[in-house]
Amino acid sequence: MKYTMLSCYRYTVSTIYRQGKRKAFNMVHKKYDYDLLDTFTNDTSTHEEVKTDGENFILKLYGTSNFESLDKYCHIAYRRAICRSSLTSSFQLANLPPTSAATKFHSYRTYLTVQEWMGYSLPPTEWG
Questions:
Q1: 98 versus 29: which is more confidently predicted?
Q2: Listed residue (119, 118, 117, 115) closest to 47, CA to CA
Q3: Do 73 and 67 touch, CB atoms closer than 8 A?
Q4: pLDDT in tens, 46-87
Q5: Which residue has better confidence, 8 or 14?
Q6: Other C-beta atoms within 10 Å of 12: how many?
Q7: Which of 75, 80, 128 is nearest to 100 (CA)?
Q8: What are phi and psi for residue 20, nearest 5 degrees?
Q9: What string of DSSP letters covers 50-103?
């Protein structure tokens, strides 16, 4: 299940750019970080719980759990990247973390995949 947040399930869950599976694997083996993923194995989790815990997991993955949202962190990361780049260098938007909206849908797809692995059938139009 922990790999699903980083796209072990190739065709269902998109990947998070430049974040390795080993990093997530090591992160969730800390007890307090593993609890974040309990939402994905609970068959009664709400959309809001999945969205919130998915965003918190991604924030921790980027090492920025002190930010309240990915959007705020993304803005800071963008400003830092622009300050470091020169006028002649190119800036890669893909290097920025995902937005809160992108993470919400990534988390929904992850939840859908995990629930299918556990034998529960959910409507893909609500979770995919």
A1: 98
A2: 115
A3: yes
A4: 999 999 999 888 888 888 877 778 888 888 888 888 887 776
A5: 14
A6: 15
A7: 75
A8: -80, 160
A9: HHHHHHHHHHHHTT-TTSS-HHHHHHHHHHHHHHHS-SSS---GGGSPPPHHHH
